[in-house]
C-alpha cells in the first residue's frame, strides 16, 4: 500500500460509496494499521527509507521525499509541490 494512503489528510469516507461494506472496512483497517504501526516511510524519488528529519511531503500527491532528492536544503515555509506535480500543473 502506498505511504500516501496513510496520510492523515486523506478522508476515506468520500470513497466509501464505491465499496462493499466488508471491503471498505478491510481497507480502513489496513490504513489505520499502517498509520499507527508504520515507522518506515519511503522516499518517493529514491525509494529508500526516510530515516532522517530532512524530508518533505508534497501537498498534492502526498508522497514524501528526502530534501536532497528534490533539491531542497531546508523545509519549505509554505505549500510545497514535488517536481512531478509541478510539471503536471504546468501542462
From TrEMBL:
Enumerate the Gene3D superfamilies for this protein: Zinc/RING finger domain, C3HC4 (zinc finger)
SMART domains noted in UniProt: PHD
User: Does the entry feature the keyword Nucleus, yes or no?
Assistant: no
A single GO molecular-function term is: translation initiation factor activity
Instruction: Extract the PROSITE patterns matched here.
Output: ZF_PHD_2 (PS50016)
InterPro entries, per the entry = Znf_FYVE_PHD (IPR011011), Znf_PHD (IPR001965), Znf_PHD-finger (IPR019787), Znf_RING/FYVE/PHD (IPR013083)
Q: What Pfam family is a match for this entry? A: PHD
UniProt-listed SUPFAM superfamilies: FYVE/PHD zinc finger (SSF57903)
Residues forming the PHD-type domain are: 40-88
- UniProt KW keywords: Initiation factor, Metal-binding, Protein biosynthesis, Zinc, Zinc-finger
Electron transport in keyword set: no
Protein name, per record: Similar to TAF3: Transcription initiation factor TFIID subunit 3 (Homo sapiens)
Amino acid at each position: 500500500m502506498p505511504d500516501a494512503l496513510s496520510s492523515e489528510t486523506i478522508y476515506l469516507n468520500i470513497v466509501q460509496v464505491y465499496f462493499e461494506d466488508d471491503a471498505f472496512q478491510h481497507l480502513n483497517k489496513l490504513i489505520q494499521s499502517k498509520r499507527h504501526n508504520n515507522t518506515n516511510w519511503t522516499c518517493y524519488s529514491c525509494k529508500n527509507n526516510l530515516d532522517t528529519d530532512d524530508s518533505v511531503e508534497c501537498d498534492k500527491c502526498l508522497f514524501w521525499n528526502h530534501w536532497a532528492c528534490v533539491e531542497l536544503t531546508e523545509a519549505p515555509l509554505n505549500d510545497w509541490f514535488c517536481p512531478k506535480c509541478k510539471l503536471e500543473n504546468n501542462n
